[in-house]
């Protein structure tokens, strides 16, 4: 049986990613060519299972596709971007 496809939603203020019937999200603000990630949250049931990291990877890919840069305000987002070989350059 294959994994259900996860789809990233961008509401204009929040990125959302559904997984196992629950939603992880990242609140953000856009200014010019920069996205400020204010807060990243995963539901308690998904914490420790990589849900927030999958959200960060999906939103980072979207941000890159839009030609934008990231300023992580959230400590989790900042740490994730520092560790990411693929997306760390978005925060520079």
Commentary on this structure:
A hairpin with a 2-residue loop joins strand 2 (14-19) and strand 3. This protein has 92 residues and is an alpha+beta fold. A 5-stranded mixed sheet has the order 1-2-3-4-5. 26% of the residues lie in helices and 34% in strands.
List the helices and strands and how they pair.
Elements: E1 8-10, E2 14-19, E3 22-31, E4 34-41, H1 51-65, E5 69-72, H2 75-83
Low-pLDDT segments: none
Large-scale geometry: globular
Strand content: 25-35%
Strands of the largest sheet, in order across it? 1-2-3-4-5
Mean pLDDT score: 94
Pattern of helices and strands: EEEEHEH
Descriptors:
single chain; 92 residues; alpha+beta; 5-stranded mixed β-sheet; 26% helix
In short:
This protein has two helices and five strands.
């Amino acid at each position: 049986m294959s994994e259900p496809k996860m789809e990233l939603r961008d509401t204009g203020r929040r990125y959302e990613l559904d997984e196992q019937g629950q939603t992880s999200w990242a609140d953000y603000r856009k200014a010019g060519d920069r996205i400020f990630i204010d807060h990243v949250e995963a539901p308690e049931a998904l914490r420790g299972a990589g849900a927030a990291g999958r959200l960060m990877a999906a939103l980072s890919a979207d941000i890159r596709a839009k030609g934008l840069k990231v300023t992580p305000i959230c400590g989790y987002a900042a740490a994730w971007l520092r560790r990411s070989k693929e997306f760390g350059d978005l925060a520079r």
